[in-house]
Design a protein that fits this description.
This protein is α/β, with parallel strands linked by helices. Helices cover 38% and strands 16% of the residues. Strand 1, helix 1 and strand 2 form a beta-alpha-beta unit. Helix 1 crosses helix 11, helix 2 runs antiparallel to helix 6 and helix 5 runs antiparallel to helix 6. It is globular, with a radius of gyration of 19 Å. The protein starts with 8 loop residues before the first strand and ends in a 16-residue tail after the last helix.
């Protein structure tokens, strides 16, 4: 149950990154709502920050309504190609969309504690935004390096928080949550993940990648590998491994992992599939394991 910001909260929610797979976050929130799970605080990384901002402002229905007819053409309209030195997409349309819904809203004035994870590209340090302009903070957290230009913040260059904190469980607990629910959208990623036809899960997909040299012609023909796909898939594997490593030190009380093998990083035009996967995963997780408080882990924490 939600309590005063200074007294702490019962349940906190950590929404991880995952680009187009972020539609599943909306489905998870629908599932929690159906089970009368009241979220008292939340944090977000990358697309998790965007969905979290809509939830924290009481505007989740905006995304739910968008999902009804959000096809390929509408998705492409958010990506205004710029071909600049610091990003292929200018980000102006995304910023305009967020300002339309978050203009004038400060993070510290939200009705529940909310924090956004970003990374300073100059230093590599995680930067947590808990005050200031909400739209600007979210814009920073979704800034995938090379795709969106970084957000300049004084002497800092803020980019996608997933580079350092892809699933901000520890950050959620720091807001005072006694119980933390984490939503991981990238757990199924394999060595040549493109979101389609990768029906296997867990470490099996990684081990298959280790034998690729013996079957290179067949693998290359099947996956149509190119430089972009190889680079992109490599980054996704690193993201999954980083998520697993952080979860070992910052475990959550309930981990929700939607089945999103059919949704690629840029499949923003498939919202209904993402929503359904998130909704079903939330209900299944709640049925399997009751939400119970867990003490914060005892280990040194660096600067945020």
């Amino acid at each position: 149950m939600m309590k005063n910001k200074d007294r702490g909260v019962e349940i906190g929610l950590a929404l991880g990154g995952g680009a187009a797979r972020g539609w599943a976050h909306v489905g998870v929130l629908q599932g929690l709502r159906e089970r009368d799970i009241e979220v008292g605080c939340l944090t977000g990384t990358s697309i998790g920050a965007l969905v979290g901002a809509f939830f924290a402002t009481g505007k989740l229905s905006v995304l739910e309504n968008m999902a009804e007819d959000f096809g390929r053409l509408k998705a492409l309209r958010f990506f205004d190609l710029a071909w600049a030195r610091d990003g292929f997409v200018s980000g102006r349309r995304v910023s305009r969309f967020m300002n339309q819904h978050f203009k004038g809203i400060a993070i510290e004035d939200l009705p529940l504690p909310f924090a956004v994870a970003t990374v300073d590209l100059r230093t590599g340090e995680r930067v947590i935004l808990q005050r200031g302009d909400l739209a600007r903070a979210v814009r920073a957290s979704i800034s995938i390096p090379g795709l969106f230009p970084p957000v300049q913040d004084g002497g800092r260059m803020l980019v996608d928080g997933g580079l350092a904190d892809p699933l901000p469980v520890g950050l959620t607990r720091s807001l005072g949550a006694k119980t933390v629910i984490g939503v991981d959208l990238n757990w199924h990623i394999g060595a040549f993940a493109n979101g389609r036809g990768n029906g296997r899960r867990g470490d099996d997909s990684i081990s298959r990648g280790a034998t690729v040299s013996r079957h290179w012609p067949r693998v290359r023909a099947k996956h149509k590998l190119g430089l972009f796909k190889i680079t992109h898939s490599s980054l996704l594997v690193m993201l999954r491994q980083l998520t697993e490593a952080r979860l070992r030190f910052e475990p959550c009380d309930l981990l929700i992992r939607p089945s999103l093998e059919s949704i690629s990083t840029f499949d923003f035009h498939l919202p209904k599939a993402g929503l359904e996967a998130g909704y079903q995963a939330a209900l299944a997780a709640l049925d399997q394991r009751p939400v119970m408080p867990q003490p914060a882990p005892e280990f040194p924490r660096g600067k945020p």
